[in-house]
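Q: what sequence does this backbone want?
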């Protein structure tokens, strides 16, 4: 019964090709994308650090310029050249305003007095919405804050009063506080527009400053990041950042926003600078490459599937024909053939299938012939079994029990007996080999013995001695052919006297056991019948067989057997042997022939472990009741 195909070879081939391709593409994509991400990460980190380093250099240069401006202005002011000072301030657009307080800061004096005593400046209209009064307030508050604990150093602030005074735009306030012979305070405001414009030309990183008052001043903010986000980034980076340039860090602000941040402190100015770029923007090229890689992989996979379908169809077409042909074979159509094209393995399989179909027809004929022969052998076995007497025979004072099993359907062992007045003749024969040829020979021997029995009715002397019987049997065997030989043994029992005459044609010597009455039997109680030996039947045309004689006593027990009994092997290849046979015979402890037979055969089967016999096995157990 055939089973319907559920998972076709075509689908398996396509799946295999797709799996291998996906594995290859996946491995390539993983390594390529990973390498690209690492390279992109290194580039982003290096660009971030380089940009931050450039900003630091610019800021340091700006601070140095402010210090130069401040020193020059103070020198001109000290010389009393007010007109030159005003001209200098007007000519330098970077300087938005200048102020100096040199008198003692007396709380009793009004702000206007302090302001009038020490304030000089260019036109302040460049400071959007900042009046002179507001500027005076800036000067006064800075003075109060930074002149209370002299000596004082240079202090740099970024837009320190933006919230209080509504200063608009990126302005830097530089404060120089001195205490020599008198308390003095110098202030200068410069414009950072040039710095902002220089860095705003790039559209990748945002740059943010934070002054000593923690005021956030974005120099570049192309990503429109909120000020509170900048504050969060400063707070998180300053927790783990020490003085000097640091590596780029990835900081997560919330569940959706992640930024790559580089942070730097500018010397003693208490200015913090930071470059910021969102992770999404930094790796947008990598993400684009990944998407494009997936699209290309899908295109390649689609093309491969199409090629796989075309290839699998050409590959499986002949397999489908083979499958259909096997269904016809299963239905009994052994003349089914497949059309062969090409010279690949599938074509070779088709040729093998056609050859197999032809051989099946041959084997069917051979099996029919074999079946016929087996039937004939079964009939021959039935016929051969009819040649043997019953497995238990009682003839006057002689009891016989036998066991016979052939190695194949037909065997080459035979035994029988003849009744002639007060004599009983027992004959056993073993043909060379086994099987059908040996069975034909035993059939000949059986016919010969039957003929002897019929002839003896008119010529009683033909059964008078065992030598004459063997001579007659030898004549019959030699007429068949010289290649077929037998061993044989003939014994004649005299029912009146118990005298036993015998003759041996190269057969195994029978054993007589004289059963002791007061002890267990031993080997010393065994008497072999070793006389009267001659050649095998069929060996010579005119052989010379000699007689042997033995006087039986009451309750003597004897056995005859063929060599298949002692040469029987177990699965390990070890033979049972004559020693085990004699032990089994002596251990019977009875004169009942059936029990002796069963004891010997049971021990043989126990040793043999159901291993097939290599030769025919025959056993005859006899008991003489005595006169």
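A:
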């Amino acid at each position: 019964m055939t089973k319907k195909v559920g998972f076709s070879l075509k689908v398996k081939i396509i799946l295999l090709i797709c799996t291998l391709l996906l594995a290859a593409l996946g491995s390539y994509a993983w390594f390529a994308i990973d390498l690209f991400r690492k390279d992109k990460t290194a580039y982003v980190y290096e660009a971030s650090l380089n940009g931050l380093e450039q900003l630091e250099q610019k800021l340091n240069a700006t601070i140095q310029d402010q210090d130069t401006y401040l020193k020059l202005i103070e020198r001109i002011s000290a010389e009393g050249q007010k007109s030159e000072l005003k001209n200098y301030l007007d000519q330098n657009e970077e300087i938005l305003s200048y102020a100096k307080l040199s008198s003692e800061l007396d709380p009793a004096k009004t702000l206007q007095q302090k302001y009038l005593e020490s304030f000089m400046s260019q036109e302040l209209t460049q400071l959007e919405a900042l009046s002179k009064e507001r500027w005076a307030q800036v000067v006064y508050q800075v003075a109060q804050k930074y002149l209370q604990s002299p000596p004082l150093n240079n202090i740099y602030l970024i837009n320190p009063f933006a919230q209080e005074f509504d200063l608009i735009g990126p302005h830097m306030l530089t404060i120089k506080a001195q205490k020599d012979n008198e308390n003095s305070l110098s202030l200068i405001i410069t414009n950072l527009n040039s710095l902002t414009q220089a860095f705003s030309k790039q559209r990748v990183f945002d740059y943010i400053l934070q002054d000593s008052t923690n005021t956030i001043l974005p120099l570049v903010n192309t990503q429109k990041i909120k000020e509170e986000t900048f504050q969060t980034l400063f707070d998180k980076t300053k927790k783990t950042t020490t003085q000097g340039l640091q590596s780029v860090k990835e900081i997560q602000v919330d569940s959706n926003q992640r930024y790559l941040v580089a942070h730097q402190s500018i010397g003693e100015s208490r200015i913090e600078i930071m470059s910021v770029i969102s992770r999404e923007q930094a790796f947008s090229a990598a993400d684009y490459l990944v998407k494009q890689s997936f699209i290309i992989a899908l295109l390649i996979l689609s093309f491969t599937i199409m090629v796989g379908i075309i290839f699998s169809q050409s590959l499986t077409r002949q397999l489908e024909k083979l499958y259909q042909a096997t269904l016809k074979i299963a239905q009994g159509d052994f003349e089914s053939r497949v059309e062969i094209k090409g010279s690949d393995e599938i074509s070779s399989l088709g040729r093998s299938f056609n050859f197999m179909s032809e051989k099946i027809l041959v084997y069917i004929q051979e099996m029919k012939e074999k079946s016929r022969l087996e039937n004939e052998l079964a009939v021959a076995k039935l016929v051969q079994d009819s040649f043997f007497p019953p497995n238990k025979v009682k003839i006057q004072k002689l009891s016989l029990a036998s066991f016979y099993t052939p190695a194949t359907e037909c065997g080459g062992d035979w035994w029988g007996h003849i009744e002639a007045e007060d004599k009983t003749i027992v004959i056993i024969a073993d043909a060379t080999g086994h099987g059908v040829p040996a069975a034909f020979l035993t059939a000949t021997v059986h016919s010969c013995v039957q003929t002897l029995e019929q002839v003896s009715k008119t010529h009683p002397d033909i059964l008078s001695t065992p030598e004459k019987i063997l001579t007659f049997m030898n004549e019959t065997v030699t007429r068949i052919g010289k290649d077929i030989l037998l061993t044989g043994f003939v014994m004649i029992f005299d029912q009146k006297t118990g005298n036993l005459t015998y003759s041996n044609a190269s057969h195994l010597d029978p054993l007589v056991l004289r059963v002791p009455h007061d002890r267990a039997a031993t080997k010393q109680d065994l008497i072999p019948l070793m006389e009267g030996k001659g050649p095998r039947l069929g060996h010579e045309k005119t052989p010379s067989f000699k007689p042997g004689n033995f006087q039986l006593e009451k309750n003597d027990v004897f056995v005859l057997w063929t060599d298949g009994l002692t040469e029987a092997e177990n699965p390990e290849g070890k033979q049972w042997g004559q020693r085990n046979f004699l032990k089994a015979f002596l251990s019977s402890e009875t004169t009942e022939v059936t029990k002796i037979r069963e004891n010997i055969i049971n021990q043989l089967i126990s040793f043999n472990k159901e291993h097939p016999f290599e030769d025919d096995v025959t056993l005859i157990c006899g008991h003489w009741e005595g006169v």
